[in-house]
Specification:
- The structure is a single chain.
- 0% of the residues are buried.
- This protein is mostly helical and 71 residues long.
- It contains two helices and no strands.
- The protein has two domains: 37 residues; 28 residues.
- Bound molecules: zinc ion.
- The site of zinc ion (ZN) has 8 residues, from loops.
Length: 71
């Protein structure tokens, strides 16, 4: 049988879980909003020489600076 004190503990635990879920959802929403710029303007860098390839076409197979094969 569940007593009055146990109901208070259960209600408190449910409240804590709800608060944690809300905080996690808000954090995720804020994080995804701040990452939008990175998605729209991705910075591509050659893994070998470290040169910025963002201004070059997406379909280039090799780095024009060091001719390293790009993934
Ligand atoms: Zn390179």
């Amino acid at each position: 049988m569940i007593t009055g004190v146990e109901w208070i503990i259960i209600a408190f635990l449910v409240l804590v879980v709800v608060i944690v879920v809300v905080v996690l959802l808000l954090t995720k929403l804020l994080a995804s909003k701040s990452e939008e710029k990175e998605v729209y303007y991705p910075t591509r860098i050659c893994p070998k020489c470290g040169r910025n390839l963002s201004q070059l076409p997406d379909d280039i197979k090799n780095c024009p600076y060091c001719s390293n094969e790009l993934a």
